[in-house]
Amino acid sequence: MKSLLLAALVLLGSAVTVRAVERPSFDPKIGAQFDLGRKLRDSSGAERSLDEILSGKPALVVFGYDKCPNLCGLTQQAVASDLRKTGLDPADYRALFISIDRTETAEDAASAKEVVAQSTTPAGLKAWHFLTGADGAGASLAAEAGIHFDTRPRVNQFVHPIAVLAVTPKGRISRVLPALTFEPRDLRLALVEASANKLGSIADHVFLLCAGFDTSKGQYTAPIWAALKIGGIATLLVLGSGIALLARRRA
Fold first, then answer.
1. Domain Thioredoxin, which positions (predicted)?
2. Beta partners for residue 40, in sequence order
3. Mind listing the domains of the chain with CATH numbers?
4. Cα–Cα distance measured from residue 135 to residue 137, given in angstroms and rounded to the nearest whole number
5. How far apart are CA 164 and CA 180, in angstroms?
6. Interatomic CA distance for residues 189 and 209, integer angstroms
């Protein structure tokens, strides 16, 4: 699945070189709050607020559009496939794909859901919600997350960044995972962290205490690497203190 994502990225990059496209801004803020009262329509046509959709569960949220010919569908499938490998109960979290295209309908959402069904189990599919909003609710929520997009009317497409956002049950962004770098462990830990430790095992909680999150890679750093970083900093501090002490004695 990851190889398909990388191949798609290469193809997309090649297409962009034909005609330079200014990338929309992408600046998601940890702690940013979504408007829980915004109404969204799911693949059945029912309309509910974001708060009702979350239902007190942590979530992974992806913004895009259902008819996207590039990375949206591949990202959905990668998230669905990797969520199967996390070992978490799908009843304990939500996976939301929110369309930024106000023209998309519940039928479009249903079609996207059918494709993702191939990458997960029936139980896993119940965690997924494909959401649209004729009033632009999806685009507004994306803006609240710091994600913006440009329209390309001539080809009926959008240019937009794509990432996986871990969101707390109260609708706050707790972690941002770049779409092409996450692993099943990252999705699991992001949901455990977003749940305020209501999900996961003791080992997960110990890992989160000992490990860090590498924002440059969008991945959780293994404890050994976190320890090595801390040890390296401590060594530099000791060496610096020793050099300073020697300099004072010679002075």
1. 10-197
2. 48
3. 2-181 (3.40.30.10)
4. 6
5. 10
6. 11
Tell me whether residue 68 is annotated as binding.
yes
Has residue 232 got a pLDDT over 50?
no
Residue 210, annotated ligand binder?
no
Q: What are phi and psi of 59, to 5 degrees?
A: -145, 155
Angstrom distances, CA of residue 209 to CA of 66, 86, 167, 214, 227: 37, 19, 19, 14, 12
Beta bridge partners of 94: 59
Q: Which long-range contacts (CB under 8 A, 24 or more apart) does 227-230 make?
A: none
Q: How far is CA 144 from CA 4, 55, 134, 178, 202, in A?
A: 30, 20, 18, 18, 33
Q: Is the pLDDT of residue 150 over 70?
A: yes
pLDDT digits (tens, 9 = 90+) for 123-139: 999 999 999 998 989 99
Distance CA 188, CA 83 (A): 7
Place of tokens 């996450």: 182
